[in-house]
Amino acid sequence: MASITSTVWASLPRLPAKSERVIQRNPIKLIRSLTWLQFAFFFSGWFAWVCDAIDFFAVTLSAARLAPYFHKTLSTVTLSITLTLLFRPLGAFIFGMLSDRYGRKWPLVANLIIISALSLATGFCKTFSAFLACRSLFGIGMGGIWGLAVSMALENMPVDARGLFSGFLQLGYPVGYLIIAAVNLNSRVAKETGWRPLFYTGAAFSLTGAIIRLLLPESQYFLERQAARQREGDQTATSKKSVQFIRETWKMLKTHWARCIFAIVLMTGFNFYSHGSQDLYPAYLTNDKGLTSHQATVATIIGNCGAITGCTIGGYVSQYLGRRITMICFCLFCCAMLPLWLLPSSFSGLAAGAFLVQAGVQGAYGVVPVYLSEISPVAFRAMWPGVAYQIGNMVSSASAQIEATAGAKLKDPKTGKPAYGRVSAILVGVAAGVVILCCLFGDESHSAHFERGRAAFEKDGGLDVVDDGQAAKTYPESTQGDEEKAEDIQRDHLRA
Q1: Sequential DSSP letters for 139-164
Q2: Partner of 418 for a Cys bridge, out of 203, 268, 407, 448, CB 3.0 to 4.6 A?
Q3: Where is the composition biased (Basic and acidic residues) (predicted)?
Q4: How far apart, in whole angstroms, are the C-alpha atoms of residue 281 and residue 325?
Q5: Which domains does the chain have, with CATH numbers?
């Protein structure tokens, strides 16, 4: 009993070591510490994530116009959203494995070109069957973006800046929504037959993202790992490297299977947490609160501004409070703001509630990219976090149907209308509880130097091994000075 108690106590989140708390560093100084190449890598990953959001929300914003065009009900049209979410784990696995094996550049370029072509093809669909086929294939392409963007952006980032830029990276999703929502507010696009420009916009953004990544070199991490192999005189043939990669993948699964399950449970909770606050929010405002569609759209945009604010703050303070404590604090803040999300009847009150709740939701979510990168097997930081993220998305794909069904049964006693708001608040609260439990008893590797780990095509890459044979996430206090020197050397190398 005592051993169980001590184990539970040891797993609880704590503040990071003093050497890792960089909250006293002005964020402007953190931003200025990056080289132009590090900025370019980050921007490329961030822009890819923005493109992902633009392409995804094009369907949700045009669903009401797609239904009469294809002569289907709204619930039938939303099947395309579910299919997109269901196929995303497959894309995360395929493109993640390609990225961990062959590098960050070409898999991401190909990924963006594929979703650009599929988004363009969606705009040309004339039958509902063709539309569903395009969106299903699009789900495979879309699933690869997050893992590739996160791995490339953060592995080239100074360790003490990763928290801040994790928040910046995740806020690319609400930024993408704001861009496509602004396009959707155009009077011509808003017409019943004007849904196609939304998909053309998505195709143009994704193609631009592919061009941006094409102009940049391979990730510094992969260049250094290839150089290390050459210094060791490793001239293994390409076919044998692929065999080695498969072996290391198997080693990783045997070694880290429990952590894989934990990440999937965490991201399932996170995706229910996020989708519960978003999917039926416009319907809640129009049906429960009597707002117009235009007011609901504006309130949703204000909520996304709160999401951007939360992502920025959450990522930054996680460098001081730690990843898990930060996520717990923002989940508690979100739950405390739910009454303001539910009780007001005026537009201003509801908009304020949307801003604060989304700040809480996305404040916790802004820590996810760096948190998953730090606890993932170091050689599989494109595939492993991406698959966990997208499986969580797949499991939560039914959240809208759950809310709609429960809301229709749990009606408001005064008006007799579906209580979408109350059901959404319950779902958000339960999901926040799941995330908090995961954070209380999960793993954390704050400020892990995963950029020193071996790549997946190297021997023992699946065992989190660095060049000196030590565990990539374990650094004794006596080596702290050496870590700082190594970090300085790495920055000077990147500047050169």
Answers
A1: HHHHHTHHHHHHHHHHHTS-GGGHHH
A2: 407
A3: 487-496
A4: 28
A5: 18-224+239-495 (1.20.1250.20)
**What are the two backbone dihedrals, phi and then psi, of residue 24, each rounded to the nearest 5 degrees?**
-70, -15
- Of how many residues is the chain composed? 496
For residues 486 and 83, the model is more confident at 83
* Lowest model confidence (mean pLDDT) among 17-31, 191-205, 438-452: 17-31
In this structure, what DSSP letter does residue 465 have? B
- Long-range CB contacts for residues 269-272, cutoff 8 Å, separation at least 24: 269/392, 269/431, 269/434, 269/435, 269/438, 270/364, 270/365, 270/368, 270/392, 270/431, 270/435, 271/392, 271/393, 271/395, 271/396, 271/399, 272/395, 272/396, 272/399, 272/427, 272/430, 272/431, 272/434
The reported pLDDT for the residue numbered 288 is: 84
pLDDT given for residue 492 in this prediction: 44
Upper half-sphere CA count for residue 21 (Cβ side, 13 Å): 10
- Number of CB atoms found within 10 A of residue 37's CB: 14
Residues 6 or more apart whose Cβ sits within 8 Å of residue 120: 199, 200, 203
Q: List the structure tokens of 423.
A: 């059901």
- pLDDT tens digits, residue range 37-48? 999 999 999 999
Please check whether residue 111 is in contact with residue 148, taking contact to mean a CB–CB distance below 8 angstroms: yes
| pTM of this structure | 0.86
